[in-house]
C-alpha cells in the first residue's frame, strides 16, 4: 500500500509545483524555495510527520522534506541545548542531501564532459 | 511575474504587455500537470523501493533510512545528468523532475559539469549553488523562524 | 494513438503499484479475527515469555492492531505492532497511547512499543530464534538491548 501512496502523494506535490510553473508563471528557483518554506511551516504545525508516516517516500523525496528536516534538526538541538540549539542543530539531519549533492557534483565534474 | 509590475509601467509599456500576453504560447496546463504527476510519482516510487531495500537488507530503521535513500537518488541523478539524459526528462515532465530531491541534485551537478571548463575553484566552486543557493537560503531561514517560534512558545508554556 | 498507448501503460503501472502493496498486506494478515501473532512457550533455559504473551493478547483485542510481536527479558519488554495503512496518519498518537497502556499494564517492566518496520523485522527474527530454542539468556538480553537501541536511533 505504501508504494501506491508514495506514488500518489509524490505526484500531488509535483503537480502543485507544476501549477506554480504554469499558472503563476514562477521560475524553478521560486517554486522550489516556496516548497521548502512550505515544508518547514507544515512541520512547524506538526502536519508533515503524519504525512511521512502515511506516504513514506512520497513525502521524503520531494524538496519539501528539506524544510521539514531542517526544522527537525533545529528542534532536536533546541530541546537539548535551549535556544542556541536552533542554530547549531539545523544541518544535523539534512546533511545527507546537501553533502551528497556537493560530493556527487564534484565527482560529476571530474568524470563527465559538458555537452553542447 | 511580468503582470505583477503592470500597474507601475508607463501606458505604452502596458500596451506592449497586453500585446505580448495575447501572443504568448499558451501552456497546456492540464497535460503538464498529468505528466508531472506521473513522473514525480514514479521518482517517489523508486525512492520508496530504495528505502524498503535499505530497511530490509541493512541496519536502517524507517526514521534513518531517508538519508541513504536521498544519497542514492542523488547518485543516480549524477549518472543521468552526466550522460545528458536528465534534462530530456526535465523537458518532458517539468516540475515532475524539478520538485523531487533529484531536481535539486541535477541543478547542482549540471552547474558543476557545465562550469568545469572555467576551472575547479572558480568555475565549479563558484557556480555550483546557482539554483541550490536560494533553496538553501530560504529553507534555512524559514526553518530558523519556525523553530525559534516553536521553542519560544514551548518555553513560555503556550504549546 | 500515442496517447492511448501512454494512458494504457500508466494504468498498468498503477495496477502494478497497488498489487505491490496488497501482496505485502496479505502476508501480514488483515483479517480482524485472525491477527497474526504466535505465543512463545519457552523451556527452562530461556527467559519466561508469559509477560510478552499477555501483552500480545491484550493488544490483539485492539481493533487497530493487525499484527503484534513481543519479547521480554527479566526487566525489559519490547513490543511491535502493525496498524492498517489508512490509519497511519495518526500513527504517532496511536503509538503513544498504546505505549502508555502497556506501561500501566506492566509496571515491573521497562516497556518499549514501536511501529517501525525495521524493528518489526528484527523482533520477528528474535521470536523465531526463541521458538526454535536457539538462543541463550545472555544472547537474548544482548539482542533485545541492541534492538531497543536501534529503535531509539533518531536520524
TrEMBL record, chain A:
Annotated protein name in UniProt: Stage V sporulation protein AE
PANTHER family, alphabetized: STAGE V SPORULATION PROTEIN AC-RELATED, STAGE V SPORULATION PROTEIN AEB
InterPro entries for the chain: Spore_V_AE, SpoVA
Annotated TM spans: 6-24, 83-112
Keyword entries, A-Z: Membrane, Transmembrane, Transmembrane helix
Matches recorded under Pfam families: SpoVAC_SpoVAEB (PF03862)
Protein's organism: Ornithinibacillus halophilus
Automatic annotation (TrEMBL), chain B:
One of the Pfam families matching this protein, by short name: SpoVAC_SpoVAEB
SUPFAM superfamilies documented for this protein: MFS general substrate transporter
Record key words, sorted: Membrane, Transmembrane, Transmembrane helix
Segments crossing the lipid bilayer: 36-57, 69-86, 93-111, 131-153
InterPro entries: MFS_trans_sf (IPR036259), Spore_V_AC (IPR014203), SpoVA (IPR005562)
PANTHER family: STAGE V SPORULATION PROTEIN AC, STAGE V SPORULATION PROTEIN AC-RELATED
Protein name as it appears in the record: Stage V sporulation protein AC
TrEMBL record, chain C:
Name this protein carries in UniProt: Sporulation lipoprotein YhcN/YlaJ (Spore_YhcN_YlaJ)
Keyword set, alphabetical order: Lipoprotein
Organism: Ornithinibacillus halophilus
InterPro entries: Spore_lipoprot_YhcN/YlaJ-like
A Pfam family assignment: Spore_YhcN_YlaJ
Amino acid at each position: 500500500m505504501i508504494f501506491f501512496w508514495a506514488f500518489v502523494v509524490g505526484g500531488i506535490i509535483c503537480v502543485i509545483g507544476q501549477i506554480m510553473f504554469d499558472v503563476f508563471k514562477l521560475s524553478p528557483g521560486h517554486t522550489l524555495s516556496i516548497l521548502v518554506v512550505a515544508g518547514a511551516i507544515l512541520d512547524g504545525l506538526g502536519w508533515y510527520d503524519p504525512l511521512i508516516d502515511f506516504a513514506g517516500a512520497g513525502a521524503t523525496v520531494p524538496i519539501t522534506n528539506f524544510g521539514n528536516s531542517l526544522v527537525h534538526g533545529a528542534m532536536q538541538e533546541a530541546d537539548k541545548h535551549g535556544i542556541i540549539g536552533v542554530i547549531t542543530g539545523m544541518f544535523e539531519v539534512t546533511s545527507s542531501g546537501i553533502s551528497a549533492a556537493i560530493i556527487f557534483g564534484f565527482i560529476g565534474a571530474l568524470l563527465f564532459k559538458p555537452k553542447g | 511575474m511580468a503582470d505583477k509590475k503592470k500597474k507601475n509601467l508607463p501606458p505604452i509599456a502596458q500596451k506592449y504587455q497586453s500585446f505580448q500576453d495575447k501572443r504568448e504560447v499558451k501552456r497546456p496546463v492540464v497535460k503538464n500537470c498529468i505528466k508531472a504527476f506521473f513522473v514525480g510519482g514514479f521518482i517517489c516510487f523508486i525512492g520508496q523501493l530504495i528505502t524498503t531495500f535499505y530497511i530490509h537488507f541493512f541496519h536502517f530503521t524507517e526514521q534513518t533510512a531517508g538519508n541513504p535513500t536521498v544519497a542514492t537518488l542523488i547518485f543516480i541523478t549524477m549518472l543521468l545528468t552526466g550522460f545528458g539524459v536528465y534534462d530530456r526528462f526535465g523537458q518532458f515532465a517539468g516540475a515532475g523532475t524539478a520538485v523531487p530531491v533529484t531536481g535539486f541534485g541535477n541543478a547542482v551537478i549540471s552547474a558543476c559539469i557545465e562550469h568545469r571548463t572555467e576551472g575547479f575553484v572558480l568555475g565549479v566552486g563558484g557556480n555550483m549553488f546557482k539554483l541550490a543557493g536560494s533553496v538553501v537560503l530560504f529553507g534555512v531561514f524559514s526553518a530558523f523562524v519556525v523553530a525559534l517560534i516553536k521553542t519560544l512558545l514551548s518555553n513560555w508554556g503556550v504549546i | 494513438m500515442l496517447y492511448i498507448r501512454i494512458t494504457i501503460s500508466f494504468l498498468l503501472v498503477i495496477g502494478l503499484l497497488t498489487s505491490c502493496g496488497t501482496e505485502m498486506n496479505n502476508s501480514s494478515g488483515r483479517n480482524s479475527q485472525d491477527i497474526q501473532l504466535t505465543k512463545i512457550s519457552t523451556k527452562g533455559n530461556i527467559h519466561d515469555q508469559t509477560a510478552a504473551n499477555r501483552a500480545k493478547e491484550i493488544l490483539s483485542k485492539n481493533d487497530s492492531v493487525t499484527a503484534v510481536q513481543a519479547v521480554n527479558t527479566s526487566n525489559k519488554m519490547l513490543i511491535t505492532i502493525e496498524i492498517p495503512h489508512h490509519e497511519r496518519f495518526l500513527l504517532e498518537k496511536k503509538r503513544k497511547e498504546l505505549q502508555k497502556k502497556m506501561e500501566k499494564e506492566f509496571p515491573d517492566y521497562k516497556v518499549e512499543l514501536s511501529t517501525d518496520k525495521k524493528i518489526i523485522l528484527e523482533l520477528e527474527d528474535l521470536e523465531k530464534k526463541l521458538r526454535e530454542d536457539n538462543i541463550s539468556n545472555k544472547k537474548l538480553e544482548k539482542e533485545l538491548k541492541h534492538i531497543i537501541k536501534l529503535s531509539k536511533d533518531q536520524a
